[in-house]
Design goal:
By secondary structure, the chain is mainly beta. It has a single domain, classed as Beta-grasp domain (Ubiquitin-like (UB roll), Roll). Helices cover about 10% and strands about 45% of the residues. The chain contains one helix and five strands. It has one helix spanning about 25-30, and strands at about 1-10, 15-20, 40-45, 45-50, 60-65. A five-stranded mixed sheet has the order 2-1-5-3-4, with no helix packed on it. The N and C termini lie far apart (about 40 Å).
Length: about 70
Amino acid sequence: MNMKIKIEELPGNKISELEISEGSTYEEVLLNLRINSETVLVLKDGQCVPLDGVVLPGKIKILHVALGG
């Protein structure tokens, strides 16, 4: 079964929606979005979540903490 999640990427306030399989991890979301997991923090309800945690329905924020320069 699939579910949709809303994603907000910061900085830049890029907002998107992604359909994933139930039981997917936050790391799998980042892989799907082609985001290096070592350069971001993933937040759910204002709290940092472990990348191996199962994605819960709703909205997540991806905070880019390491930017190329």
